[in-house]
Design brief:
This protein is of the alpha+beta class. Helix content is 29%, strand content 22%. The chain is built from 17 helices and 20 strands.
Length: 470
């Protein structure tokens, strides 16, 4: 490692080379989940210029050391050797004529939304709901968004137009110009298997400056009535192409008083959201048992700020994730979810805020299943599952608790029905029991060919949904 550090010093500023005794080291190595943070690197590199990034990628790739690329640190960029931080690549270039924006991969979505409201207030991009999620890690892993019912997944060709990528030999290329566009295809859901994405060219869509949204929390006793009314609404609104939707949240907000939350999102405004029009959400307020209601007209930044409480949990506990997909959501689906959550939180060790279930209602794919590396269906609801638990006193206890958490997570498939394949899931949160080949299905062979070309040594994305080169 000493020889490598001497070499990298010829290309990076001293402030860009962080050792474990550097005061800011921990801020680059803390992960969303504690068990990811347990693996600590020997070195963190923070290139600040294009030429520095190119040299860093080339040196890392030809070194004997493993490395991971960090954008927001949510999905887990842990590594025992080197972490490459993209923090400095936070550019924002709005093209008024083309209605596109070139985004640096190292920033989070909170920053992007603030810039959109400042420089393009009548437009929005298809980005993550949670403000601290990194741009880099989310787009190449599907890209779930509040805008998905109307405009599709973040990785869809209609939204993700191109990318600047530093490949293993240090060259920076436009993905669309590589291999007849196949590199760009691979990045659309294929994660970081093919290089280091420096920036993304995204389509921006016309969007109102204010959305009617926020959270309503209900007493647990209201759940059967809510599930029944939600079923009726979804049957009437089989396609949510106008953007009006809701997410159903189950979380341990207060274990002594069970409740559930409904997150409202309606770009058509207050009258539509709270009115009696069949496509509106007025029925939600007619369900008895409301405990709190902070809905109102809000900017997009204010909408995503509603997730800041979850952001405060960053790095505080262990979290096991799995996000199955379903094309059908009805009363029975909601009730199965309610039962899963009740069973998951019976053991006191899992009665923590990071144990949750979120029904993210309706995502519309804009393109065929083979137009992206991840072969998603035409329309899907994401069922985000998480089982959390705090740090344990010893390794034996941790292993026992982790094993039980994984069992509970795997049982979550029963929510979407036994006829749904385990591998039909959101690739941003693949559970340990899933294999990349099953998730990418018929696209896997093509992805392996591209992996062999762009990552012949198999060094990229070791901590993600790893594709094995041929």
């Amino acid at each position: 490692m000493d020889l490598f550090i001497s070499e990298i010093k010829q290309h990076l500023q001293p402030s860009s080379i962080l050792l474990p005794n550097t005061p800011s080291f921990a801020s680059y190595t803390t992960q969303w989940s504690l068990h990811h943070s347990a693996v600590q690197p020997k070195l963190v590199l923070v290139p600040k210029e294009d030429i520095e990034l190119a040299a860093t990628v080339k040196l890392l790739y030809n070194s004997p050391f493993s490395f991971s690329v960090r954008s927001g640190g949510i999905a887990g960029s842990q590594n025992e050797d080197v972490v490459l931080s993209m923090e400095a690549f936070d550019g924002f270039k709005w093209n008024e004529k083309e209605k596109t924006v070139l985004l640096g991969a190292g920033q989070n979505w909170r920053t992007v939304y603030q810039k959109m409201e400042k420089f393009a207030p009548d437009y929005m991009v298809v980005g993550a709901r949670t403000p601290i999620v990194g741009v880099g890690g989310s787009i190449i892993a599907g890209g779930s968004s509040w805008l998905s019912p109307q405009y599709g997944w973040g990785s869809d060709p209609a939204n993700f137009l191109d990318a600047r990528v530093v490949i293993h030999d240090g060259r920076e290329v436009w993905a669309s110009e590589e291999d007849g566009g196949r590199l760009l295809w691979a990045l659309r859901g294929g994660q970081g298997n093919f290089g280091v994405v420096k920036s993304f060219l995204l389509r921006a869509h016309p969007y109102p400056r204010e959305i009617y949204g926020g959270s309503i929390f209900f007493d647990a006793s209201a759940f059967p009535a809510f599930a029944k009314q939600a079923d009726k609404w979804l049957k009437h609104n089989s396609s949510l192409s106008r953007g009006t939707t809701f997410h159903l949240l189950m979380a341990c907000v207060d274990p002594s008083r069970p409740s559930f939350g409904v997150q409202i999102f309606d770009p058509l405004g207050k009258e539509h959201a709270k009115g009696s029009e069949p496509t509106g959400l007025g029925w939600i307020w007619e369900v008895d048992g409301i405990l709190s209601d902070d809905t109102g007209l809000k900017t997009f930044c204010q909408i995503v700020a509603g997730y800041e409480n979850m952001c405060q949990l960053y790095g505080t506990m262990n979290t096991i994730l799995y996000a199955p997909l379903t094309t059908t959501v009805d009363e029975e689906t909601f009730l199965r979810g309610w039962k899963w959550f009740a069973d998951a939180t019976k053991p006191s060790v899992f009665q923590v805020p990071c144990t949750l279930l979120v029904f993210e209602i309706d995502h519309a794919a804009t393109g065929s299943s083979d137009s992206t590396a991840w072969p998603r269906s035409e329309r899907n609801t994401v069922v985000q599952l998480a089982v959390g638990f705090r740090a344990q006193d010893d390794a034996g206890t941790f292993n026992k608790v982790e094993k039980e958490a994984n069992r509970i997570i795997q049982n979550g498939r029963q929510i979407v029905g036994v006829n749904t394949a385990e591998s039909d899931c959101f690739p941003n949160a693949p559970a340990d029991f899933l294999q990349p080949k099953s998730i990418f299905q018929g696209n896997y062979a093509k992805l392996q060919q591209l992996k062999t070309k762009y990552d012949p040594q198999g060094k990229f994305n070791k901590n993600g949904l790893y594709i094995q080169p041929l």
